Amino acid sequence: MNFVPAALTVSAAVCKTVTINLTHTGSLPRNAMGHNWVLSATENAQGAAQEGWSAGLENQYLKPADIRVIANTKIIGGGESDSVSFNLSDLKVGGDYTFFCSFVGHFAMMKGTFTIAE
User: Fold this and answer.
1) Is this prediction's pTM over 0.90?
2) Superfamily of domain 7-117
């Protein structure tokens, strides 16, 4: 239960839009061991994850319209893939961002750093 790679760096000078492609390499269905990719400011990540658990699988374990969530894929099961694209213009070069899985209980192990470079 981890992201590979565990850290991502994107150049704001080169990229205006980023696309994240997530593939679940396991075999269990999404309701048993689903995964997603969620981006948030680091200071908001844990709260967004924990408050999302009560939102349920149908909401990707994210509170609907949570302004702390910058971008997210849907929850996928084994063998499935999903993508999300987002604009870097609202993010700060050198800002402190974390990506994580919002499936219940996964936040502790499934998270990484997202850095925007010049």
Assistant:
1) yes
2) Cupredoxins -  blue copper proteins (2.60.40.420)
